[in-house]
Amino acid sequence: MKRLDYNVFLASNNPDLTRITSGIIPHILLLDIDMPPIAGQPCLEALRANRSLGIMKIITVAEKERAAELEASLKKGACAFATRPVSPTELYRTIQKEIEPRPRQFLRIKVLFKATVITGTTGRVSFATALSEQGAFIRTMKPLPVGSRLKVSLELPTPKPLVLDAEVLYTLAQGPEKLVDPGMGLRFVDMSAEIQAGLRRFVEEQILGEGWEGLL
To answer: What residues of the chain score a pLDDT lower than 50?
Structure first.
């Protein structure tokens, strides 16, 4: 989750959950439907009865076989639910939809690996700093114009670099305080379903390595 730029707080019991929500109000809570009651009241209902937590979104989580209970949780105050085994991409879409003003559809992670931008017969070595199954961000002081078509060679941990056709979606200039990487956002084009699925697996594996299974 940290690789998605979210701050994560884990609560394995009600005292932990009460302590966390007393100090801050999370934007969203992933709640196991088996979390023990709070003061004799089902956990979800107890949280929803607390007016100070009214703005907090709640996503309930359980096994697929308990779909009826998850559906019922929507009538008790949950905004959405997720089923185990959890798909990182689907959960990401759900979280983005609930709390982000401009929700993303695809997992996007921070990375740092070599990337060669190829136009015509010229190749320019740079670095990719973000990656999704749909595109990448290339850090460079000399981005190509928006709409430019190119090839990009990504040196992922694969037997050989992955070479893809891409289009420049946007560019970013170096800010005065250097808080934003200059460069260009690329969208992969004419990509096979097999390659896209492989990129999705790679991105999800990076996220799973951050402890999603322990969280869910």
So the answer is: 211-216
